[in-house]
């Protein structure tokens, strides 16, 4: 990937190549090859910046670009991404530990990404990738709420374009226009539908609380916390394609998510919410008559990590605590058959000489595999879903000697089938 920096109003930094971050395990490894959005670590503190900070990046196929910034004091921050020429960016914001703070696809309007949140002091990584994995040039902007917006997000966004994933319509229906439903209740104070037994029920318990209803009947759910708690909020039913937005009792925006897990949504509030009333606005991008199950439960860090591993968003630890099939040292070519379901199965490959690795995940018409390749540090090297006109996956990656982890899962959560892995190594000519 090539990264470019665009000069900003206010003279925050001059146009030119952004300097790479120091080699460190930032944001769980995601930020190791990131770019400080202010050009250097010292000039990337958004809490003290005189204006927004922005970078332009060329994201090649199935890769992502990561901008780094810091917060020196509790700050309300806006993060945005906008593609050029019809590009459709998706963003993830991670804290220094690698936990996803928020994700967004189309809240900025016209396919752009937009989110506002309150951040505590620390270092953060804002990743941008293309919705359908195609090459894209886009802009990433980080600023405080008083700074100029990059997109039209925040309630006045124009009609977004249709998302077109690389899968054919048998995989995932084309996303319709994002038209979130605004609760008619006017904020949390008037919400009449509560998760749990009612507005005074502040105990989430081990399993949390949940309710199910279509958006046509209920487009906002309330819940109350009686003690400070970090929480996880989910909305599930892929046929509806739900979007959830969290507000406090005063109607202040806290977080939003669309498509955290396939077409289902999830918000992880890793910083404890204070006691009080909250409400969850729910909209459906596909079918408002489909029932959506909305749940609130105590945030479980280990469950969050395992969820990322099962979807291929992160690689598992190599300490024996997670099942990994060791395929041995890759000499020239190896083949391995495995039953693959919706949770990623993981395979270890050792490479003793640098070169090109070609990986195929073949469903033979009975499956739709998705493949992810990571190095032993946890950095994603490559990703692929559909190769050409088939549902099979193909990864071609240049590698150095070392250990690599290959994750494979089914695109369709309801499917389990035999997937054939074919892995070949090509070394440079002497």
From TrEMBL:
Residues 164-184 have a biased composition (Low complexity). Residues 151-184 are annotated as: Disordered. The keyword Signal applies. Residues 218-284 form the Peptidase C-terminal archaeal/bacterial domain. Keywords: Signal. SUPFAM superfamilies: Collagen-binding domain. Residues 1-23 form the signal peptide. It comes from the Bacteria. InterPro entries: Peptidase_C_arc/bac. The keyword rRNA processing does not apply. Coiled coil: none annotated. This is Bacterial pre-peptidase C-terminal domain protein. It comes from Wenxinia marina DSM 24838.
């Amino acid at each position: 990937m090539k990264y470019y920096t665009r000069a900003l109003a206010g003279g925050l930094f001059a146009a030119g190549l952004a300097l790479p971050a120091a080699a460190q395990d930032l944001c769980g490894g995601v930020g190791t090859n990131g770019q400080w959005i202010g050009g250097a670590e010292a000039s990337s503190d958004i809490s003290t910046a005189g204006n927004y900070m922005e970078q332009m990046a060329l994201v090649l196929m199935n890769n992502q670009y990561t901008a780094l910034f810091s917060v020196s004091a509790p700050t309300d921050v806006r993060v945005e991404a906008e593609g050029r020429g019809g590009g459709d960016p998706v963003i993830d914001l991670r804290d220094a530990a690698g936990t996803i703070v928020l994700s967004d696809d189309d809240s900025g309007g016209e396919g752009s990404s937009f989110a506002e949140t309150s951040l505590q002091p620390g270092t953060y990584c804002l990743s941008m990738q293309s919705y359908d994995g195609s090459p894209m040039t886009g802009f990433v902007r980080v600023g405080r709420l008083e700074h100029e917006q990059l997109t039209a997000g925040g309630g006045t966004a124009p009609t977004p374009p249709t998302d077109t994933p690389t899968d054919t319509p048998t995989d995932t229906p084309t996303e319709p226009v994002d038209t979130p439903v605004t609760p008619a209740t006017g904020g949390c104070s008037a919400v009449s539908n509560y998760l749990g037994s009612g507005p005074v029920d502040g105990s989430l318990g081990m399993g949390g609380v949940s309710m199910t209803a279509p958006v046509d009947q209920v487009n906002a759910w309330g819940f109350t916390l009686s003690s400070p708690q970090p929480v996880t909020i989910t909305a599930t039913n892929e046929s509806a394609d739900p979007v959830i937005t969290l507000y406090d009792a005063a109607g202040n925006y806290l977080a939003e998510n669309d498509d955290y897990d396939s077409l289902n949504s999830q918000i992880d509030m890793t910083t404890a919410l204070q006691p009080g009333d909250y409400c969850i606005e729910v909209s459906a991008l596909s079918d408002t008559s489909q029932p959506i199950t909305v749940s609130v439960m105590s945030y479980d860090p280990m469950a969050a990590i395992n969820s990322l591993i099962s979807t291929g968003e992160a690689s598992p630890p190599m300490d024996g605590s997670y099942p990994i099939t060791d395929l041995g040292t890759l000499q020239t070519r190896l083949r391995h058959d495995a039953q693959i379901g919706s949770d990623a199965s993981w395979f270890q490959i050792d490479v003793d000489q640098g070169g090109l690795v070609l990986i195929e995940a073949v469903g033979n018409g009975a499956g739709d595999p998705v493949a992810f390749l990571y190095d032993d540090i946890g950095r994603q090297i490559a990703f692929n879903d559909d190769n050409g006109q088939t549902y099979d996956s193909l990864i071609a990656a240049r590698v150095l000697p070392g250990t690599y982890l290959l994750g494979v899962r089914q695109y369709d959560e309801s499917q389990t089938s035999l997937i054939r892995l074919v892995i070949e190594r090509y070394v440079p000519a002497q």
